[in-house]
Amino acid sequence: MGPLLAGLSGFGWAMLPPFVSIFVLWLILLRPHQWPQSASEWLSASAVAAVLAQVLSQLVLVAALFAIGRGIGGVMGTLPLLDPLLTVALSFLALPLMRLGWNPDQAIAEGVTIDDMIHAANLPTPPQAKAADPAATVAGLLSLADAAPPEAALLQVHQAFETGVGPAIAQSLAAALTEAPPERHAALREAVVVLATDPAIMAAASAPGALRAAFAATGQDLRLLRLLVPRAVALARAMPDRCDQFPDAATLTALANSGLEPAMAQELTVLANLLRTGGAASKPAQAA
């Protein structure tokens, strides 16, 4: 606007030097990486040529703005009387305003350019992920083939619990597997047991409700209980602060008294006692 108003006011070409100086200083502050940074660089022919090219481009730009302003004044048939210092001050004001939001010294130190920031700002914002529908997620899990490969079933169960609605999925999945015939969803039931008793997942509490779903998934299936219960006992002993992730002790006691083989009933009783005491009572005593 500075040189445009200067041309509109009918000022002569003597006003070019201050405007060109301001425009060149603007470029130095905005894109310092395009200018020599040391005395040795200033002595190189390529650097001098690049600097002269930038100065010449600003000279042409200011002259064009002068001409446009003069043309507007000619069309209007009047030339407003503005103070020459006002037009120069208007252009100069852009420098401190720009400096408030852009630090050229920091940009040089960090290797950041204004063009990189503009490019990053213009990148499309990724759409926000929609919250997963627990019913649809559980329906997808239940569609797994009974004989699906263990790795594929485990991956799908893991992804389901990472959707941000893990507790709702665990509750719906437990209800669905409890109502389903025991011979159905074999691969899914085993995957839920393996995921729920993974020590890393239990420590991070990244699959809340999964352990309760695992006990619901096993029912009274002795094969799955042999996989689940020893791992659950080890977790209760190693992570007593995660005992709230287990079914309550009364539920486990009722399962132990439901006619299971003595060894499995004993392990379930041990687990129930661990949960009643917060996992501490059954820890082995430390040697003196």
Fold topology:
Elements: H1 2-8, H2 16-30, H3 39-42, H4 45-76, H5 84-101, H6 104-110, H7 114-122, H8 134-142, H9 150-161, H10 166-179, H11 186-196, H12 199-204, H13 210-218, H14 222-238, H15 249-256, H16 262-276
Euclidean distance between termini CA atoms: 86 Å
The main sheet comes to: none
* Pattern of helices and strands: HHHHHHHHHHHHHHHH
Overall residue-averaged pLDDT value: 82
Rg for CA atoms? 37 Å
Low-confidence stretches: 126-131, 281-288
Q: Could you estimate the helical fraction of the residues in percent?
A: 55-70%
Number of helices: 16
> How many strand segments?
0
Characterise the protein shown here.
The protein is an all-alpha fold and 288 residues long. The chain contains 16 helices and no strands. Helix 8 crosses helix 10 (166-179), helix 11 (186-196) runs antiparallel to helix 13 (210-218) and helix 14 (222-238) packs parallel to helix 16. The relative contact order is 0.07. The model is unreliable at 126-131 and 281-288 (pLDDT under 50).
Features:
single chain; about 290 residues; mainly alpha; 16 helices; about 0% strand; disordered C terminus
Please sum up the structure shown.
This protein has 288 residues and is an all-alpha fold.
